[in-house]
Amino acid sequence: MTTVCRLLGKTQKTIREWRRIYEREGLESLLKIHSGRGRKERIQEKVSFANAIESLQDQRQGGRIQCQDIVDMVAEKYGIHYSRSGMYHVLHRLGFSWITSRSKHPQQDPEVLEAFKKTL
Fold it and tell me: Domain limits at 26?
């Protein structure tokens, strides 16, 4: 077994798993094995994704959406589960930036704010 592992550059655990798959499901299943965990499904429609993020922000009564809010929305709407760090990579790849203006308090009154600026 160690000679086979050395020749293939794989661990004994991997070789044993391959043998189990071969005995259970045959050669076809063994040939379908790919290295790594594979890629996550990508969010294909950038426009609908951007609109979903904007509507998520519009639903808020104040403050900003956070990355976890987007992760939850993507899991619910698209059925794709990301970690927060993974979602930051997706957002960056799609051209989104976290540089935003200062958030507004839900009870902020623009007229009172303007009056304050004029009297200051």
Answer: 2-31
Confirm whether 73 is domain-assigned: yes
Q: How far apart are CA 84 and CA 75, in angstroms?
A: 12
Give Cα 36 to chain centroid, integer Å.
18
Q: Are 50 and 89 members of one domain?
A: yes
Q: Give the single-character DSSP code of 109.
A: -
Determine which helix (DSSP H) or strand (DSSP E) holds 25, and give its type and residue range: helix 12-25
Same domain for 80 and 53? yes
What are the two backbone dihedrals, phi and then psi, of residue 95, each rounded to the nearest 5 degrees? Answer: 90, 15
pLDDT tens per residue, range 51-109: 888 888 888 776 778 889 999 998 998 888 889 998 888 888 887 776 655 667 777 88
